[in-house]
Amino acid sequence: MTVLSLLLPAIVGFGLGDITDIVESDDFQTATDVAGAFYQAGRGLSDSEEYYLGRAVAANVFSLYSPAGNTAFSTYLNSVGTWVGTCSPVPCTYGGWHFQLLQSSELNAFACPGGLIFITTGLLAQVRDEDELACVLAHEVAHVTLRHGVGSVQQSRWVQAFSLAGMEGAERWGSGELQQAADSYGDVVTDITESLITKGYSRESETSADSLAVIIAAAAGYDPAGLTRVLDRMAGLTTRSGPGFWQTHPSPEDRLDDLGSASGGQTTGYELRKARFEAALAAMGTPDAQPSSQETSGRGTGGSRGGSSGGTSGGSSGGSRQ
After folding, report:
1. In the chain, count of helices (H) and strands (E)?
2. What is the DSSP letter of 190?
3. pLDDT value at 82 more than 70
4. Is residue 317 included in any domain, yes or no?
5. I want to staple 250 with a disulfide (CB 3.0 to 4.6 A). Which of 126, 196, 246, 254 is the partner?
6. CA distance 96 to 93
7. Is residue 290 part of a domain?
8. For 303-309, what is the mean pLDDT?
9. What is the edge-to-edge ordering of all strands in the sheet holding 98-103?
10. If DSSP codes are grouped into helix, strand and coil, which group holds residue 98?
């Protein structure tokens, strides 16, 4: 029995719901509430402020993509992701680690501040076992722990936000000042959303996230070379246009060069983990990835999962770079 299987009842007991539930929950704070909290000069975001900021970014994500997967797969995805997050430098975030599958043929995964993480069905199609999935999620967990989302905000946005520091609290602001705070908050959310979906992070940020991801995956008991296998598989794809990975990340070849050869190998319990991964896909039915609203508006498409065998269109089956 693996550590993950032992922890699964406890993980589920924490009430890990879909990110859709989090975004729509009744305790969602308004933009001005959050603005009043973190628009104080000379300090960064607290854990709770980063979480609420991340929820606003997640709401933007859901305006562009539809959630995918069933309850069984969501439970599985969250159990793997939460265990990976627990083995990271930030074992517990303010609102907990939460993971959501999105229906899109784009090859992509992205992390909102505070621990809300998405992976598309298109990228899932490139994953062959639980170790590889854990490595992909570990990369996004690394982005959160390194606070790359918050760091992507344009400096001018923060300056504008901090210019409200002389105000003593939202309850004392006039209507014009409240609107200014809400607009500034919206600009910050927009900056982060664009970095996740259309602009991407710098190569340096991606390299640091990859480096930390293999450490996290190994600490969680997974084969860290799973990340190089996914990247190597993506390097074999012939179609590299459209939104998602190709627009927001360095090429897989560059990332592989920066990462080097991640040492590792199949660890104890690999066959059980692989069977669990395949069972989760089978329970979901491994549907073809559907285009997101961005793709249907002319931004292009990526590869999709073709049938229950988990093959991909236009890509090689790949293998380890080692």
Report:
1. 16, 6
2. H
3. yes
4. no
5. 254
6. 5
7. yes
8. 33
9. 66-67, 98-103, 116-120, 109-112
10. strand
DSSP strand pairing (98-103 vs 66-67): antiparallel
Residue written as token pair 């509430």: 33
CA atoms within 13 A on the CB side of 188: 32
226-249 per-position pLDDT tens digit: 999 999 998 888 776 665 565 656
50 within 8 A of 94, measured Cβ to Cβ: yes
Residues 105 and 121: beta-carbon distance below 8 Å: yes
Do residues 139 and 117 lie in contact, with contact meaning Cβ atoms separated by under 8 Å? no
Residues pairing with 112 in the sheet: 116
In a domain, 318, yes or no: no
Number of domains forming the structure of the chain = 1
Structure tokens that stand for 68 in this block: 């995918």
What is the model's pTM?
A: 0.73
For 103, the enclosing helix (H) or strand (E) is strand 98-103
Average pLDDT over residues 199-207: 80
Q: Kindly calculate the radius of gyration of the chain based on its CA atoms and give it in whole angstroms.
A: 20
- String of b and e for 35-50 (b: at least 16 CB within 10 Å)? bbbbbeeeeebeebbb
Q: Which class for 20: exposed (0-12), middle (13-18), buried (19 or more C-beta within 10 A)? A: middle
Domain that holds residue 167: 3-312
Which is more confident, 254 or 307? 254
Cite the DSSP H helix spans in 87-129.
Answer: 121-124
Q: Which residues touch 156 (CB under 8 Å, ≥6 apart)?
A: none
Query: What is the rounded CA–CA span in Å between residue 255 and residue 4?
Result: 29
**Residue 70 three-state SS:** coil
Establish if 320 belongs to a structural domain.
no
Give the pair of three-digit tokens for residue 82: 């939460």
Phi, psi (rounded to 5 degrees) for 128: -110, -15
Q: How much is the pLDDT for 256?
A: 87
Q: Tokens 């070849």 correspond to what residue? A: 253
